[in-house]
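call fold(seq) -> tokens
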Amino acid sequence: GGVSAFDTNIRLIDDTFVGNVTLGSGGAVYLKTAVVSFLNDTITGNTAAVLGGGVSLYPASAPDFIENTIIALNSALKAPDLFVPDGAVLNRNRRTVVLRNPAQES
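ret:
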């Protein structure tokens, strides 16, 4: 994957994540018990074998906000673009594109 963060707050600003691969979850971004802000990011063409080909927020992780960000055309077994744990609230603005629904897919 591209970025992994644990037990912290992280801001990703003006970043591009393309072509990252992991055998686990979070092809481009994997966060565990973290809070993240995405601003002006592009996350495309990444692959995870399990969850969140683009982004995996796992467990108890949540996005503070996602603004002017594209998360699209990633692949994974479940939640290809964005994996969000049950109960997390996505705070997105209208200039954000998540190509596939971040709901858990079977």
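The two ends are 23 Å apart (CA to CA).
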